[in-house]
Amino acid sequence: MNRTKAIIIDAFWQLLEEKPYNKITVKDIVDRCHLNRNTFYYHFHDIPELLEDSIKSELDYIIQTYCNPGSPIDCLTPLVQNTLRRKKSTLHIYRSVQREVFLRYLDQLVLHIVTKYIETVTVGLTLPPEDKTLLIRFYKCALVGVYLDWLDSGLNYDLEKSAIRITELLSGSGKQAILKATESINNKH
Fold first, then answer.
1. How far, in Å, are 10, 73, 128 from residue 143 at the CA level?
2. The dihedral of CA 63, 64, 65, 71: what is its sign?
3. Contacts of 93 (CB under 8 A, 6+ apart)
4. Could you tell me the fold of the domain covering 47-188?
5. Which residues contact 1 (CB under 8 A, 6 or more apart)?
6. Mean pLDDT (whole number) for 53-59
7. In whole angstroms, how far apart are CA 89 and each of 14, 25, 69, 82?
8. What is the pLDDT of residue 75?
9. Looking at per-residue confidence, does 36 or 74 come out higher?
10. Higher pLDDT, 84 or 188
11. How many beta carbons lie within 10 A of that of residue 163, not counting itself?
12. Domain residue ranges in the chain
């Protein structure tokens, strides 16, 4: 990423820690960066584009750096830690008119995590494609739902601890679902 663009993005996140998204102006950003408006507009059409680019870059980084197919928790932990590091910023975006951008990229991130995980644990198994899709969709919705519940609570509970505990409580249920799916295809033959 180019240095100036990174400075603009960093200033934007700093401002988001201080005030709601809808209160941030291009002037605020360029004043913080000690740049002129033309420099901002060279890199971004407007603040919504800056937001979308920032969120996409952050989530792409999490995917590339942390999302090994070992466990969805291994991928969610960096997301939770990043959210806690930028607590006010995340809540400002989540509660803003740009919430849909945030939700779209969150959905893509979690879909990626769950898909990689399901593909890894089902290597060598014959699953009906519709069952595989159903399992991916179910776990994606569950993880996104838990994350959104955490945001709705104002980040007022330990999501990492809760995620680890729910994983322990549901241990084996995913494996059981996969085995049932493979049994159903084997019974057809």
1. 28, 10, 23
2. positive
3. 16, 21, 51, 55, 99, 101, 102
4. Tetracycline Repressor; domain 2 (1.10.357)
5. 9, 57
6. 87
7. 8, 15, 29, 10
8. 65
9. 36
10. 84
11. 19
12. 47-188
Residue length, the chain? 189
- For 95-130, the pLDDT digits (tens) are 998 899 999 988 988 898 888 888 888 888 788 889
Half-sphere exposure of 121 (CA within 13 A, CB side): 20
Average pLDDT, the chain: 86
Q: What is the C-alpha separation between 151 and 104, in angstroms, rounded?
A: 15
Question: Other C-beta atoms within 10 Å of 65: how many?
Answer: 10
User: Are the CB atoms for 11 and 33 separated by under 8 Å?
Assistant: yes
- Report how far residue 32's alpha carbon sits from residue 106's, in angstroms, rounded to the nearest whole number: 28
Secondary structure (3-state) at 1? coil
Longest dimension (CA), the chain: 69
Please tell me the predicted confidence (pLDDT) of residue 123.
81
